[in-house]
Amino acid sequence: MSEPTDDSLTGRILADLLQRSHLMMPADLSAHLADAARPLGVSRVRIYLADVEVQHLRAMPDSSGRTPPPLLIDSTLAGRAFQSISVQRTGSGQSTGPAGLWIPIVDGTERLGVMELSVADHDRAGQITLEHCRMLGTFAGLVITSKSVYSDSYAAIRRSRKMAVQAEMVWAFMAPRTFATERVLLAAALEPAYEVGGDAFDHSLLGDRLHVSLFDSVGHDLTAGLISGVAMASCRTTRRDGGDLTEIAAHADEVISEQFGASRFATALLCDLDTATGEFTWLPCGHPPPLLIREGKVVKQLLRPPRLPLGLTEDPDDIEGPVRSYVCSEQLQPGDRLLLYTDGVIEGRGADGREFGLARLSDFVIRHSAEGLAAPETLRRLNRAIVEYQAGALRDDATVIMLEWMPDDPERRLTV
Amino acid sequence: MVRAMVSALPTWRTSRYTVVQCPEQIDTSNADSVREHLLAELNTGTKPLIADLTGTVFCDSSAINALLRANTRARASGRRLYAAAPSEGIVRKVFDITAITRLIPTSEDVGSAIAMAVVAALDETGDDVPDDIPENVLDDAP
Questions:
Q1: Which of A10, A223, A272, A384 has the most beta carbons within 10 angstroms of its beta carbon?
Q2: Across the interface, which of A267, A289, A303 has its CB nearest the CB of B61?
Q3: What is the mean pLDDT of residues A55-72?
Q4: Where are the alpha helices (DSSP H) in A70-180?
């Protein structure tokens, strides 16, 4: 009998995995992958997931119950596979003996972790193609995402410590930290990962329109988390009912002031990007203005007259001047990047008492983007820089969202 | 976190208004005590309250929160809260970004804030505004 061609082998393994996926227990993913990939010479598969703070890759326990120690994303081969979203091979300097591969696990464009393939025979490892790796990494990403809905198996591995109640709630509410289509890319970073409460973000694509919103309610205690949660939920319900930015804000005002009284509020940027035309419209609700980066330079802060933060209703008698719309608009050029951030990013103080500041924020993003780093990895490193600047103890939540409009450049390093 | 408590903020009470001088920096470490001080003033007096932020070189959203809480309390008791913050400073920048000048009338300096507060109070009572009021008021200013 002749060896099957590569195509048919990939197809057979994938068909086998898809069939297994229905009844697969979340914790048994690596065992099933190893079993199905045996025709490739694979002897063992180990799954590592990035922790919530995206600093370490943490291993899922295998059938023996043993768990290898976490791997630092910044300084390991596994971490390099994760950072650069590329397959890394171990033992490639030798010609015989066992070998291994590190394969990034990605769901859509969201990096979840890496998979270690152990191959007993060095020659067999050399025959494992990029296509095989893509197939295994993509399958793992889909399974982890779909099964996370009804299992704590993955959520528990991703934590290095216990999470505050408000953080548990806000994370459950938020959209993924990375999202991309052929025209637009969004990456978000948020700290302190285990105590966040006041900051939150949301995004959603409807047709050509990408809606992005960023919220900041004062503090990061449970009340702050509740206000942000209610703000997010009320915005979604209006948006899904076809409401525009002004209507979204008006409904949020009502709900927040009813629930939390007249002086609690959340600042927000409610934004729509038309991904076909590049028209960016936004409603500044008492929030720091977006920053526009074009051709590696900060072009401007999009500072416009803001409306009040969400939850603060105006007494019409007290308002000076006519009632007006606060919706703003800016035409983007292909390749433009927008940075949306909360004040906790720029107001964080270093050891010398100086603020992190807008210049440091934009310099960091521009420098790392110029080095060819993908947006999610740039923001992961920015997150580290923000935390380290404040010596690990953030006084306020800090969130950054990078939005890139690239209608002419579908080539991105966001998949394997 | 150790919180730097502001036990008492310098406060000037006159027959027409009260001025509270806010700290040099207001952030999460002391915003609660600033709020408490403003609320305590609102609980005892009956006159317009002026938050003097002319000596404040840094404030973040927790300061805005404190002022808004005080403003809500003031409104509930039929009083008004005013602020003084120079237009070139960081405080005014934060005020402008958060749009709270739409809720809390804000002047360039304490004298103008007092004048604004006293004139508005007279408007409300229906009394004529005496010609000399702004000047007298300025004499009283801290």
A1: A272
A2: A267
A3: 90
A4: 77-84, 122-127, 130-147, 153-157, 165-173
CA A298/CA A295 separation, integer angstroms:
8
Instruction: Please spell the DSSP secondary structure of B20-60, one letter per residue.
Output: EEPPSEESTTTHHHHHHHHHHHHHH--S-EEEE-TT--EE-
- Measure B120 CA to nearest chain A CA, in Å: 12
Q: Is residue A358 within 8 angstroms of chain B, CB to CB?
A: no
From B142's Cα to the closest Cα of chain A, the distance in A is 28
Phi, psi of A266 (to 5 degrees): -135, 125
A76-80, A164-168, B42-46, B97-101: lowest mean pLDDT where?
A: B42-46
pLDDT at B113 over 80: yes
Distance between CA atoms of A195 and A344, rounded to whole angstroms? 14
Go through chain A and tell me how many residues it has: 416
Structure tokens at A87: 């397959």
For the record, the structure tokens of A46 come out as: 């180990």
**Residue of A265, A343, A395 with shortest CB distance to B68:** A265
Which two three-digit tokens encode residue A83? 């950072």
Beta strand segments in A207-354, E = 209-217, 266-274, 279-285, 291-294, 297-301, 328-331, 337-341
Burial class (CB in 10 A: 0-12, 13-18, 19+), A391: exposed
Total Cβ atoms within 10 A of residue A227: 27
| Amino acid sitting at position A330 | E
- Could you list the beta-strand ranges (E) of A18-144: 42-50, 56-59, 71-72, 88-90, 99-107, 110-119
The residues that bridge with A186 in the sheet, in sequence order, are: A179, A403
Count CB pairs under 8 A between chains A and B.
Answer: 65
CA distance A240 to A395: 34
In chain A the first and final C-alpha atoms are separated, in Å, by 33
**Interface probe with B: pick from A260, A307, A312, most Cβ of B within 10 Å:** A312
B18-77 pLDDT tens trace: 999 999 999 888 999 999 999 999 998 789 999 999 999 988 888 998 999 999 899 888
Residue in the structure block whose two tokens are 């809606």: A211
**Which chain B residues contact residue A317 at CB under 8 A?**
none
Whether residue B80 contacts residue B49, with contact meaning beta carbons closer than 8 Å, is answered with: yes
